[in-house]
């Protein structure tokens, strides 16, 4: 063999790439590498110290032969997927092991007796990995929390958080660091800030909120314009870069909102006390101040650190009442802000923003967290008022930073980007919309946005509204954080970032720090910006998965009381194995399987028509169709609802009354 060939072979054998390890139930591993067409197969003996979901470095072995899957061996763990794990303690004669409660193969942790923290044999616990040296056969762990949950419901919520990689509690050092922080307003700090304490300022938040991120101030100017300030909690004043608090916040990267609890990014001392813009308290803020005409023209902008004093705490319901009745506390200011917000909103849509609206559910819970009702959350003018001013502030900050160059290079910055839709997803959607009589122009991005807005306006209130809105959303790319600014397609913004929620989102904290460096003309470019953006995007995705899982759990828990009941529903998805149905009244999604339809016909999937079609009868179950279903099973462990299709004389008959009676009976 020539030296050249030998070197190539050696090089190919030692090629190391980074990816995420996915372990199947059978125990075989697959490393998913971005940009690689096929996953790398890793056999159980080659996992090294890696667990399912970890980001790992894998050494590729290209001696697999032609046509065979690429195989590899994990050399080390770059990032752990989870900080803690749920499972049970097995204790025998002072030797303790932790067995993780997971379907994925995972080694037991050896737990030294002094690290049991009071846990006894068989107890359900949260444990963390302490170390796993090469000489050790088993990883060593420590019990963090004994899960003495009040009920099954509480335990389920905690398990969802742990599975998503979010710790249930803050470490002792983090809490101690938070308790040391002072709320005293100092003269030295006041000198660095503009004082807005004498200007009318208020917050608008959900009724149950405690962490008030943002406030709005307003006053008349002598030139006839208005000065409107968007004031954001100055978290970065308290959470210093690379401190214990900062590292903890970065690791979590986001607060997680479940139906019965919030798992916060920051300790309550910071999120609900020091930084929360509570009424009648002086607070440090980071602000964008706008001078605006009554026609919504922005004449001047100022960015900097401030101090404010909130005069009033509004709920969204309070503000909505003022908008509708045109009377109430500070009604003139509220009505003016609402008028300006309507102008900004119209301008956004005129300039290419897409007017997608999605319905959210909120659970009415009893004192133990059990759902006793489900209400559909509507986005009203009060929500849109706050939304428009937050969008304006976020956009203004991104535009400001984008203009600054360091050594003729852009400042590394966590932009919030939303890419243009994928052609491969758009084409079948456009063809499907055409079946309902809606034309869709996909020749360029602007035409797509205009087509979407026309469709969303025309479809409003029609039977096909739900299906076309849902499928339209699915054609969209996912919004992420990155330093490579490609703009935000959905909002129609060339520059956009997240600045307005630093209590609950880590990228906003990063934005505040970089913004201050820009204002000080002392930018220290962060070489790890892309890595941090990816981490925050990943954590955001996991938080959303946890939120969806918890909502699904509550839906199943709610529908357990309705086994055997019939409801009207809308087909929300189709697959080769059945179709999903969302109930009209409660938005609870369940599955009708092909197996349960076999007595009527043999059904096959028609992907182009988003439908299951009967081979003999031609009966069609298409996404968006109205159907009647019966609730036949509610599996809490799997978070799964099973429905049967109810056939009535060959027709689907809507019967809202019965569903309403069921809800009444439940109450």
Explain what this protein looks like in three dimensions.
With 667 residues, this protein is of the alpha+beta class. Helices cover 31% and strands 28% of the residues. The chain folds into five domains: 3-79, OB fold (Dihydrolipoamide Acetyltransferase, E2P); 85-174, OB fold (Dihydrolipoamide Acetyltransferase, E2P), CATH 2.40.50.700; 180-411, no CATH class; 420-476, no CATH class; 563-666, Beta Barrel (OB fold (Dihydrolipoamide Acetyltransferase, E2P)). The termini are far apart.
List segments where confidence is low: pLDDT < 50 over at least 5 consecutive residues.
1-13, 650-667
The biggest beta sheet is recorded as: 7 strands, mixed
Q: What distance lies between the first and last C-alpha atoms, to the nearest angstrom?
A: 81 Å
Proportion of residues in β-strands = 25-35%
Describe the global form. globular
As a whole number of angstroms, the C-alpha radius of gyration is 28 Å
Q: Helix count, per DSSP?
A: 17
**Helix content percent band:** 25-40%
Mean pLDDT: 89
Class inferred from helices and paired strands: alpha+beta
Sheet with the most strands: spatial strand order: 11-18-17-14-13-12-19
Q: How many domain modules?
A: 5
Number of beta-strand segments: 33
